[in-house]
Amino acid sequence: MWNNAKDRMLRERATEVIPGGMYGHQSVALMPEDTPQFFIKAEGTRITDVDGNVYIDFMCAYGPNLLGYNHPDVMRAVSDQQSRIDASTGPSPLIVDLAEAMVSMISHADWAMFCKNGSDATMMALMIARAYRGKRKVLVARKAYHGSMPWSTPRPAGVVDEDRAHVIYFDYGDPQSLKDAVVSADGDLAGIFATPYRHDVFADQSMPDREYAQVARDLADEHDALLIVDDVRAGFRVTRDCTWESIGVRPDLSAWGKVLGNGQPISALMGNNRARDAASQIYATGSYWFAAVPMAAALETLRIIRETKYLEDMHRIGKAFRDGLNAQAKDIGIGVRCTGPETLPMLQFEDDPDFRVCYGFCRAAMKRGVYLSPYHNMFTNAAMTETDIAQTLEATGAAFEEIKSNRASLQPSTKVMAMTGS
């Protein structure tokens, strides 16, 4: 029987010593009621909360779990490297091995720099774009997520106007809006940021068409600015290369994170020779950026990416998940939209302006052992099997039945409505 007594007690303790009880993207403040905050075990496709409830996890730690939690080959590489050297006075030779491996795999890249988080990588990209020709303005799509730095955080508390004085916004996927933004830069254009696909929170998600991507490339070239693809979320989940390679457009810089170490803390910025001198000029560092253990994990993860059919398996599983949800919704007479790449699915419900149906559905699935998100894109991983999908669809089928029977009693998500202006 599902229960959350220990989780509730931990939350009460956390409110006394952690601002807000929890912070950042892993806070469950926007998740359905009773969503567990604390976990004690992760293995393969499953996570176990502090009360012992086990879930098939479609959030994958918000992305880092690419191959399965505690993948044995990656963990052997971690254990072996831990016995030698990790964070030290200088990096291990693995930093060169890893840079060579990344450069060999990413078509646009001639060099690599490593850090810890996606926000580190996008911040470096911003600095390099400005150092490239000494210009200041950067173009960013409205509602696009590029991390938690003052220039990019989606929440304005603690941010002053000066932090974003040189950020110009445009509509993602709209070539004319992008052209207008370039005009607004008035000759001071440093760079154009692009997410690999539209993944706004609470919105339908889709890959961009080639026209938009090519316009971004052409405008960057015309104005001698750098084109930056933020592949932190989608990297190695759509293709084995930079995601925009799949639509035939190469950036100057690409930011990577989440999956590189299959859960070990490492991210990267990749760049071409056009941006090399600017990259050598900026000062960017961190006490743990050069640690060897995450680099060993990344090298093994990249080997698996190159040598196995992990990606094809993920696409197959993602399609089975999406097809199953669509079929269940159709059979029961509830309208849903499953958008985004198959490996990064987004689920929304039709006729659900206050999000009560989606939140009720995810809560019902969670009580049956499947962890879904009602507002963020989800993730598949290479450890997922047909059995996992069958068990998932058993839970979601029951969840559809529950919300159909109890729709009138479902409660609206007031916090989400406030965020979206609904």
TrEMBL record:
Cofactor(s) needed by this chain: pyridoxal 5'-phosphate
Record keyword Plastid present: no
Any GO MF annotation of the entry: transaminase activity
Keywords for the protein's UniProt record, in alphabetical order: Aminotransferase, Pyridoxal phosphate, Transferase
Organism superkingdom: Bacteria
One Pfam family matching this protein: Aminotran_3
Signal peptide: none
Family, per entry: Belongs to the class-III pyridoxal-phosphate-dependent aminotransferase family.
The name this protein goes by in its record: Aminotransferase class III-fold pyridoxal phosphate-dependent enzyme
UniProt organism field: Hwanghaeella grinnelliae
